[in-house]
Amino acid sequence: xxxxxxxxxxxxxxxxxxxxxxxxxxxxxxxxxxxxxxxxxxxxxxxxxxxxxxxxxxxxxxxxxxxxxxxxxxxxxxxxxxxxxxxxxxxxxxxxxxxxxxxxxxxxxxxxxxxxxxxxxxxxxxxxxxxxxxxxxxxxxxxxxxxxxxxxxxxxxxxxxxxxxxxxxxxxxxxxxxxxxxxxxxxxxxxxxxxxxxxxxxxxxxxxxxxxxxxxxxxxxxxxxxxxxxxxxxxxxxxxxxxxxxxxxxxxxxxxxxxxxxxxxxxxxxxxxxxxxxxxxxxxxxxxxxxxxxxxxxxxxxxxxxxxxxxxxxxxxxxxxxxxxxxxxxxxxxxxxxxxxxxxxxxxxxxxxxxxxxxxxxxxxxxxxxxxxxxxxxxxxxxxxxxxxxxxxxxxxxxxxxxxxxxxxxxxxxxxxxxxxxxxxxxxxxxxxxxxxxxxxxxxxxxxxxxxxxxxxxxxxxxxxxxxxxxxxxxxxxxxxxxxx
Length: 485
Hints:
Layout: E1 9-10, E2 13-21, E3 25-32, E4 37-44, H1 49-63, E5 73-79, E6 82-88, E7 92-94, H2 95-101, E8 102-103, H3 107-125, E9 129-130, E10 139-142, E11 147-149, E12 156-157, H4 178-182, H5 188-204, H6 214-223, H7 229-232, H8 238-247, H9 259-267, H10 272-276, H11 278-291, E13 295-296, H12 299-307, H13 314-340, E14 341-347, E15 353-357, E16 360-362, E17 368-375, E18 377-385, E19 390-398, E20 403-407, E21 417-424, E22 429-432, E23 435-437, E24 444-446, E25 449-457, E26 460-469, E27 474-480
Parallel strand pairs: 8-13, 14-20, 21-27
Antiparallel strand pairs: 1-2, 2-3, 3-4, 4-6, 5-6, 7-10, 9-12, 10-11, 14-17, 15-16, 15-18, 18-19, 21-24, 22-23, 22-25, 25-26
Helix pairs in contact: 3-5, 3-9, 5-8, 11-13, 12-13
């Protein structure tokens, strides 16, 4: 197939256009007529034995994948003395392109992306497959907010044998783990180390390990020394700082043991509203980035600041870096919030209120509650007053860069509860809120809320407790005190 030839047919796939080219392959979009779907076809450029073996291996490893964060492989074709890999088509951008044009990212966006990649790794690691080349160029973000892990051509599984007979270290130096830089055997924790590098880079705009050549980069990785992320971006929360430090520990025994453990910590740093609408948030963020001018902090400046972070001029460098970070990220972050996010202020009287926003619990503070940010669009607020058993439901539209004010108005419910007491021995005395009840056997009407129940006989108090009574409920209490308190 000629480089620019269109409408060629390869194994049932009609070539549409060439969209890229790397050192090993040419990339085309194509149409699969039988299923009426777009695909991507990777054509091998250099059919030497080792590269063909790697190509076939990517097809074999990926063919069985069925997880939303891992790119699907559909077919492997030998046609006209060339090898072709047919893959899922993703309409979007790779993370490398986004980082080169817009970095650092807002904190929640970076964590959402890392969380999705970690889910993909959790799936592949459970199948005993180590990716070994986690880097921004191998992460795709689609325009509908999906995050995809691609390129398992250098991945390793339990059946891997001699695909690296040349003795070369496989992977991308800036994203390697210390054991990978040493050429030692890898584990799933090696992938998680690279994930920590990605999180660091998205939040600071700079890789933790850098240098003028690969040898210098690998030497820094092996030593495990890098500038702390909050030095480059003081806005990074402590919980995320800890995740980065744990992921980038030189001793793999002190890193995350599994992707599942890392996912658990990542989820705790995100509001449930963001986790529940992750695809919408990422899709809108990508849309914002593609329509905005490039805005990144100068990498040379950041490197110099990082190098001098522990020297005499540390405070001056940190001040300059903070200003640089603000200039680079403020406009992107503000634009995203002003065009996509809003807040909700709930006004209510009294306590004992349970709140839910779009079905998820919401903290309710007395008098006034400001919550958010939430994505623009339609939302549902439900409130329940546990004291009166009354409910409030409202569907409303939230506009971007605005605060929706909602005043909770519960219908009145003065109906009390009915309570019956069966107490032994017969001479026991019953007190409700300090008032003695003369006819213990008769049903009692109590107002909703907390009441104090005290039962005594002679000089002894046998029962003294607080109980909550809901409106329109019937309660029966049995106290057998013949055996004493």
